[in-house]
Specification:
Elements: H1 30-40, E1 41-43, E2 50-52, H2 65-71, H3 75-114, H4 122-132
Antiparallel strand pairs: 1-2
Helix pairs in contact: 1-3
Region (Disordered): 110-133
Length: 133
């Protein structure tokens, strides 16, 4: 499969902790893995061949794996693709989650600062973040 570039909107500044993909939790259910795969997977409508998207589809948008079978893909092809691409999909989802978390934190800080709250020093913020990890 061709590598697909991931597209994420940039953060307003660099987070104090870098992103490193980590394996999913051992307790992650098959349903959760399939939901994650479906956010990043699309199928060629004429052949059913799966390929990875550049951006995840919204959580609310569902994808039906049987559509790929109806278009001509075999279950073996889909299973092989899911096994081969799982780590790529999981790492991409981790990057999306990381950006989303930091975007939310930065927006919260900006609102607090706009209301006249005292601006927190980067060192203090980094210390608190590391304590949470």
């Amino acid at each position: 499969a061709q590598p697909t570039t991931i597209y994420l909107s940039p953060l307003p500044r660099q987070p104090p902790i870098s992103f490193y993909p980590r394996p999913p939790p051992l307790s992650m259910s098959i349903e959760a893995k399939l939901a994650c795969l479906s956010r990043w997977t699309h199928f060629d409508p004429s052949t059913g061949t799966p390929y990875m998207l550049s951006t995840p589809r919204p959580k609310e948008e569902s994808m039906c794996w049987t559509d790929a079978i109806y278009a001509g893909a075999s279950e073996e092809v889909l299973l092989k693709w899911a096994k081969e691409e799982w780590w790529q999909v999981w790492a991409r989802q981790g990057a999306v989650n990381y950006v989303g978390i930091w975007r939310g934190r930065f927006e919260k800080e900006e609102k607090k600062n706009a209301k006249g709250g005292e601006k927190e020093k980067d060192g203090d913020r980094l210390k608190r973040v590391r304590e949470r990890l």
